[in-house]
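Schema walk-through. Below, the input block comes first and the output block second. Nothing else is stored per chain. Lengths vary across the set, and this one has 155 residues.
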Amino acid sequence: SIEKLTEQAKQYMEANESVVAAVAGLYETKMFGQDTYRRGVLIATSARVVYYGKKLIGYELEVFPYSNISSIEMSKGFLGHAISFFAVGNKVSMIRISEGDVQKLVNHIRDNIGKKHSGSSDDTAEQIQKLHDLKEKGVLTDEEFQAKKKMMLGL
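--- output ---
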C-alpha cells in the first residue's frame, strides 16, 4: 500500500525532511537496456522528490533535488494518471497512478522547480560524519551508510 511504502522510504530521508504528498503507480526504468516498470511510490518532500520501490530482495531508491528538476507534466487516461518530469536531462515517469494526491504532488513539485534545499553543506558534512560514526560502531551496514550518504548529497 502507499502508506506502507511511504513509511519504509522515510528511513532514507533527512531528520528535518517531511512528506508533502505521495502517489503509487508504475515507475518507468531500464533493466538490461530494456524499458520496464516497477511498482512503487513517488514522494514529494520538503527537500526533494524521492522514488521508492520494494524489490523481491531489497529496495530501489532514486532521489531528485528540486534544483535539478526543469519541468513537470501530468495527464489522465483510461488507466489512471501519469506524471513525467525532467531532472538534469533525464526523463522520470510514473504511469497507472492508482493511489495518492496527484494534484498536490504535481503542484508542490511545480512550486519548487529549480529551488535549492536550505540545508547547508557544513550541516550535510556533519550529518555524514555522524552516519560514518554509526557505521563504525556497527549500527549501520556499509550499504545503508552509502545509500544514506548518496541521498544526503542529492546523488
